[in-house]
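From the pipeline queue, job 12 of 40. The input is one protein chain; the requested action is below.

Action: predict structure.
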Amino acid sequence: MLAKRIIPCLDVKNGETVKGTNFVNLRSAGDPVELGRAYSEAGADELVYLDITASHEGRKTFTDMVTRVAQEINIPFTVGGGINAIEDVDRMLGAGADKVSVNSAALRRPEFIDEIAKKFGSQVCVCAIDARNDEDGWHCYLNGGRIRVERNLFDWAKEVADRGAGEILFTSMNHDGVKQGFANEALAKLAEMLPIPIIASGGAGKKEHFRDAFVLGKADAALAASVFHFGEIPIPELKEYLRKENINVRI
């Protein structure tokens, strides 16, 4: 069985790592290149960097940072935020990223997933889905969770896989930043219905939450931000715990 992956996520604004709660009240969490190196050395399996200032200026700063990250770390990393065209994918891969994450652009124009998979291979395309469990079921949201679209999470996830995405990064907006655990029921449903890996995001607060994402949620990887950035859960400690819980992780 493939090892389960632990993935720190770094939101980058104007060249520094920031972390908020429910997308607001951002505070600095340090230099993204140094943090990436520290995570790589601590045993993280992969990293995700998200450009949350995807204006033209922000994009140039972010591309320079991606180049520096690629020189400093020796684990795969994914970049996302403001990737709307094949040229953006090309630029990020050229700067040294291993994969790109697409979200709003894919919802607006689903063919974008096919184009990335066809040109660069499915393994390059991570489709991020931000969804919320509303009164009428799980719905997808655009623009960092601001705009609801009339697409059901499970229907969209199936289409994403059919179009050639290599992985799905599913963030439950109900669970994000609350530190009460991942959306394990929805994760398990996604894992059972799809042939591609599912990355759990939104809700990590303690080590047991990671275990539950793997055991109950059947996720292939678990992503978190603040519990790692602010030293609440050291990665070596988390992996030792998971190993004791009979979960296959790389140590």
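Job complete. The mean pLDDT is 93.
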